[in-house]
Amino acid sequence: MVMKKVKKDVGPSDLKGSEAEVGIKVCQPGVLKGLPVDGLRLHPAISDIPTVYGVSWKDFLADVKERGIQEPIVVQKGGILLDGQLRLKAAKEGGFKTIPARIVDLNPEEQVHYIFTSALGRRHLTDDQRAVLAHWYRESVLSPEAKKDRSTKANMAKKYGKGSSPTPTLGNKQKVDTRTVAARMFGISRKKVEKVSELPRELQLEVLKGNLKLHEAVKKIAAQKKRQEIAKFGKEVPADKRWDLFCEDSITGMADKKRFPDNSVDLVFSDPPYNKEAIPCYSKMMQEIPRILKPGGSLVVYYGAYYLPEVLNSIRPKLTWWWQLAIKLDASETIKGKSVFQGWKGLLWFCKGGMPKKHPAINDIIVGSKRPEKLYHVWEQSVDDAKHVIEKLTDVGDMVLDPFAGSGTSLIAAVQLHRRAKGFEIDPKHYAVAHGRILKETQEPVVEIGTAA
Ligand SMILES: C[S@@+](CC[C@H](N)C(=O)[O-])C[C@H]1O[C@@H](n2cnc3c(N)ncnc32)[C@H](O)[C@@H]1O
Known about the structure:
By secondary structure, the protein is an alpha/beta fold. The chain folds into 3 domains: 12-120, Conserved hypothetical protein from pyrococcus furiosus pfu- 392566-001, ParB domain (Alpha-Beta Complex), CATH 3.90.1530.10; 127-212, no CATH class; 235-441, 3-Layer(aba) Sandwich (Rossmann fold), CATH 3.40.50. 38% of the residues lie in helices and 18% in strands. It has 18 helices and 13 strands. A hairpin with a 4-residue loop joins strand 9 (320-335) and strand 10 (340-351). The protein is elongated, with a radius of gyration of 31 Å. It starts with 17 loop residues before the first helix and ends in a 12-residue tail after the last helix. The site of S-adenosylmethionine (SAM) has 20 residues, from helix 12.
């Protein structure tokens, strides 16, 4: 590879320091110099700030190789890099020996301030990304500063502009609201900064990198909290005789004839994982399901439309094909690689013997079910959809089995409809959530003595 090595003479036209664009707090212009690319250390505050925000590294590197480093990096006296991680990396990879640098002499607080405000100057930051920077800035600069006695409202106002406290009626001795100051500095709402502060650092980083939207990260945390709470509840409340959930592999578990005698289950209602690697689950579960289903019993399964032929091939040799049901989705989902907007989700229905046991006619389109928030499981299905099927295909007291229970949706539907239920969940974390959730959502209403009508 022929590399163009530019020994650039850095001139004043190169002085496009991002702090000048930001206009918040301009640091000294510094001294321009060509510095050796090796031997610079990263300032600790810079290491977490991702270097690329939507810029293709390949394009950037190609540009640097062709035109050299156009904008000097910024280095604190003594060799600490404050701005220009990506440029430094490109200079090294591009084979440059030196890099144009602006040497500044800032105190520790100014260094951190500089790092954050220069990141802020990058125009392609979304509000969510700004909110993360605002929160970090608040943590590392504003809060420690505000803790010092001298950082009264008056001091902060002098430093960060009038109105940096949201409560102007408070006296000057009153501590400032650093969240509001950070929000104003970074041009976003206080609420967003507050939301970021509730996220763990790994998720803040994901938002800053643009991998996750702030509202998605907030939802992720809410779901985690909910799962922890429900699992804890499951540990505290005694088990219930109407259902059994086993934390084990259903393929071997269903082969246990004591727990699953021949002809003992009225309905298998399940949602096996349907990514490509999991497709063998369908044929594996068919080793036992035909044996344990009662004659006239049904198997109703969700499936991924991509693999419908494989799913049908796994089930059809062992059970009778009966029908399919369609769950109408609220919004269409784009199906990758198929040029399709999918507006419904399918359920396949098979039975043991010539036909299913007698039941009232079932509507094969399921509409208007409450959609799950997917707080308990990423693949959580709707309790209403499960009830639609269970109610029609079984009677009170019948046995419903779900070999892939996830967060326990089918068992909840069955027990709420006064059926008995059994299920398997192989993952202990999902199991704990499902166990607590089934307990919680199938609790009988408590009638206090003297209050019943
Ligand atoms: C698609 S999810 C089910 C989600 C469920 N419908 C709900 O509403 O939460 C499938 C579940 O099957 C579990 N699983 C996969 N293989 C299993 C096996 N061999 N035995 C038991 N559970 C299994 C997975 O851990 C996953 O939680």
